[in-house]
Amino acid sequence: MALTRVPALLCLALAFGLAADAIADAPRSRSSRRRRAASARPRPPALPALVVPASASARDLQVGEACRRGLEGTSGAVVAMDPYTGRVMALVNPQRGMATAYQPCSVFKIVVAVAGLTEGVITPESTYNCTGGCWIWPGHGVVNLRKALAQSCNPYFEWVGERLGYERVHHYAELLGLGSPSGINLEGEASGTIPVAVRPSQVGHLSSHAAGVATSAVQLAVLLSATVNGGIIYQPQVSGPDGFAAHERWRLPAGTVLGGLSDGFLSAVNEGSASSAFDPDVIVAGKTGTCSGVGWFASYAPADRPEVVVVVFVRGGSGHVASAVAGRIYQNLYKPAAPPHAVGGGK
Ligand SMILES: [Zn+2]
């Protein structure tokens, strides 16, 4: 039976030992003195590699196993969450996915897009001519929001960020739940970082690369979920479905514009930076990130009626690698294996 093979560890078993590692590992979030103190302590016990709810349903266990197997052989983390409730079904490698914050790279472009749309700086149809200075030579040419998200066009988001100014970028980053703990019901969560202020000359680079920003995979799952569920910032909770009560932390202000994002998230998989998650039978949407030796893919599926948000983080990899991990997870969840009797059929 598949269920008996699942290492269904109780989430509360995590509590012991997380804090010290978080201090030792979290960039910019603790003083160097505390870091030194932490590294002098005996090494804490190894954390469970997979967290699923204590009262996990059969589907939760399936999600957990798909996430574990999808990441297998790759250094990183995965979080799987219901975007409409914040219920966390699985967290693979919580040390890297929840207790440590990393530069979100181009996943941060979602924040800039929401800010630009809501503040009237852009519409989904606004275009920018990317003629150089992008990650691809000689540039992407004329791009609108959909194409800019799909191709992760840096000059487009630098242009939007500079027109917004850092104060507004910072405001929307906070509104989308970055820079403070998500409140997940596990010990040792990293709060992440958003710079308080940056020089005007740095706003563009921050808007495209998220330089100086640090987020956890759990925070990005909350952020992406808000764009899917119409603007609700949920408190993520590792919990089984029975008796679960969703906790809304807040709603994005009335007038927040999210329309136009999903086209970009879908195009990223169909024709853009996340094409390694593409499968004709499982429609996935999301945003990649690649920088500073880490890779991300913040995603959801099925794209037309999202059931699960999956955020993949990889170290020593790229958004391409992360989206391939997500692709394996979704295929495992949504693409049933061929029935055994089909093998050796009389064809
Ligand atoms: Zn470009």
Any overview of this molecule?
It is a single chain. With 347 residues, the protein is an alpha+beta fold. The protein has helices at residues 2-5, 18-25, 32-40, 58-71, 94-97, 109-118, 145-151, 154-164, 166-175, 203-209, 217-228, 261-271, 319-334; strands at residues 50-51, 76-81, 87-92, 128-130, 141-143, 232-234, 237-238, 248-251, 285-291, 294-301, 308-315. It has one domain (50-336): Beta-lactamase (3-Layer(aba) Sandwich), CATH 3.40.710.10. Helix content is 35%, strand content 15%. The strands form 3 sheets. Strands 1, 2, 3, 7, 9, 10 and 11 form a 7-stranded mixed β-sheet that branches. A hairpin with a 5-residue loop joins β2 and β3. α6 (109-118) packs across α9 (166-175) and α7 (145-151) packs across α12 (261-271). It is globular. The site of zinc ion has 7 residues, from α8. The site of zinc ion (ZN) has 7 residues, from α8.
Q: Return the average pLDDT rounded to an integer.
A: 88
Order of helices and strands: HHHEHEEHHEEHHHHHEEEHEEEH
Helix content range? 25-40%
- Number of separate domains: 1
Outline the fold blueprint.
Blueprint: H1 2-5, H2 18-25, H3 32-40, E1 50-51, H4 58-71, E2 76-81, E3 87-92, H5 94-97, H6 109-118, E4 128-130, E5 141-143, H7 145-151, H8 154-164, H9 166-175, H10 203-209, H11 217-228, E6 232-234, E7 237-238, E8 248-251, H12 261-271, E9 285-291, E10 294-301, E11 308-315, H13 319-334
Parallel strand pairs: 3-7
Antiparallel strand pairs: 1-3, 2-3, 2-11, 4-5, 6-8, 9-10, 10-11
Helix pairs in contact: 2-3, 4-13, 6-8, 6-9, 7-12, 8-10
